[in-house]
């Protein structure tokens, strides 16, 4: 990619940064598996501002893939969704929090300087979080409780904002929701997607049978009753207690900040990749996040849900609304209803998380006539690592 092209994008994106002139230095790009839907370009911008002082910005350019088949299938829509979140949803939430003088507002996302919509190309220009001390967690290792809790704390704020805004200004909330195409439902409407999810489920059942663990096998088989039809129904449900979700809750979409090089206890988190953000039950974020990232803490899920709900209730009060908008009993009902869908998806999710780079799909190579579901044909790892991620989830579900 030409530096001149990147500089032209930045001329537009940084118009409000008051550079007289600047130079662009390119950094390292994304590794395979770190950005399925887009490509990341890391850049350093150095120049002089209008007050004649040197100015430096560390940025990440998230650009859409050029492949036309992928753009038509889901690629362009995914970028439009993330742009909607950064241009409309977050500014609305920021204004709403300012109005209520919230002490610790929801700001757990990177600063976005600009969303650019060009011909067959979308670009989001973000601050680079790495120089600020944020880093990714090893995606193959479950989050410990401190990491899990800090994400749930931010999810509680995010979800509370929807409940409170809908309570106090339903028109404004509905205006945000009208532009919301559900990419999860779109993804699950493809026969290829459902076929490959079913394939992953059958492979997992064979694996559990071979492990000679009849209790775990029997419970998982029971969870799967209704098959992928149940999955489609769960993800397609939108009711009065639906809120704006993150929607893409796997390990690689969180960057954590630490103090004193203590990597066990993060002090802050930023949530990345809002391309599948959608209106749905809060339990969707909670079930997908906890199953995909924190299965080793399954014995603590009920306690974590209580903590999440306490934080959601507290934030609702700060925003001037009642915790009765989403009671703990509501949360338990939604959680129990949605959990089977998350468990059905977990084997395929773990296959992606545990795969080596060479096994991962490259959506930029999509051929005309194929769709994203065709790329979900991932082998289920017959490893202890896979089994040890899945087993605690099934045992937890067995005790519900």
From TrEMBL:
InterPro entries: CHK_kinase-like, EcKL, Kinase-like_dom_sf
Protein name: CHK kinase-like domain-containing protein
Transmembrane segments annotated in the record for this chain: none
Top-level taxonomic group: Eukaryota
SMART domains per the UniProt record, alphabetical: CHK
Domain CHK kinase-like: from-to ranges: 124-318
Organism lineage string: Eukaryota, Metazoa, Ecdysozoa, Arthropoda, Hexapoda
């Amino acid at each position: 990619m030409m530096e001149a092209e990147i500089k032209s994008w930045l001329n537009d994106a940084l118009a409000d940064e008051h550079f007289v002139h600047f130079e662009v230095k390119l950094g390292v790009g994304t590794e395979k598996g770190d950005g399925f839907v887009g490509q990341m370009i890391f850049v350093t911008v150095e120049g002089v501002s209008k007050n004649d002082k040197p100015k430096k910005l560390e940025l990440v350019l998230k650009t859409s893939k050029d492949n036309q088949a992928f753009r038509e299938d889901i690629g362009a829509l995914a970028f439009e969704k993330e742009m909607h979140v950064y241009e409309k949803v977050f500014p609305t939430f920021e204004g709403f929090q300012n109005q209520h003088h919230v002490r610790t507002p929801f700001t757990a996302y990177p600063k976005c300087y600009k969303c650019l919509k060009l011909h067959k190309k979308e670009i989001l220009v973000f601050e680079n979080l790495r120089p600020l001390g944020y880093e990714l967690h090893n995606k193959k290792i479950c989050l410990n409780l401190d990491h899990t809790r800090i994400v749930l704390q931010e999810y509680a704020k995010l979800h509370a904002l929807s409940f409170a805004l809908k309570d106090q200004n339903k028109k404004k909330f509905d205006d945000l929701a009208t532009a919301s195409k559900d990419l999860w439902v779109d993804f699950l409407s493809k026969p290829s997607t459902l076929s490959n999810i079913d394939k992953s489920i059958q492979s997992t059942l064979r694996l559990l049978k071979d492990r000679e663990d009849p209790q775990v096998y029997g419970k998982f088989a029971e969870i799967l009753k209704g098959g992928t039809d149940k999955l489609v129904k769960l993800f397609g449900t939108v009711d009065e207690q639906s809120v704006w979700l993150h929607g893409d809750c796997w390990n690689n979409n969180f960057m954590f900040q630490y103090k004193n090089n203590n990597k066990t206890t993060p002090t802050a988190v930023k949530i990345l990749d809002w391309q599948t953000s959608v209106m749905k039950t809060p339990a969707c974020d909670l079930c997908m996040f906890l199953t995909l990232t924190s299965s080793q803490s399954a014995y603590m899920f009920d306690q974590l849900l209580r903590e999440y709900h306490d934080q959601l209730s507290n934030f609702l009060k700060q925003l001037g609304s009642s915790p009765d908008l989403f009671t703990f009993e509501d949360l338990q009902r939604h959680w129990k209803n949605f959990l089977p869908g998350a468990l059905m998806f977990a084997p395929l999710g773990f296959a992606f998380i545990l795969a080596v780079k060479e096994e991962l799909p490259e959506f930029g190579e999509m051929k005309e006539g194929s769709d994203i579901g065709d790329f979900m044909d991932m082998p289920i790892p017959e490893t202890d690592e896979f089994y040890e991620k899945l087993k605690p989830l099934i045992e937890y579900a067995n005790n519900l």
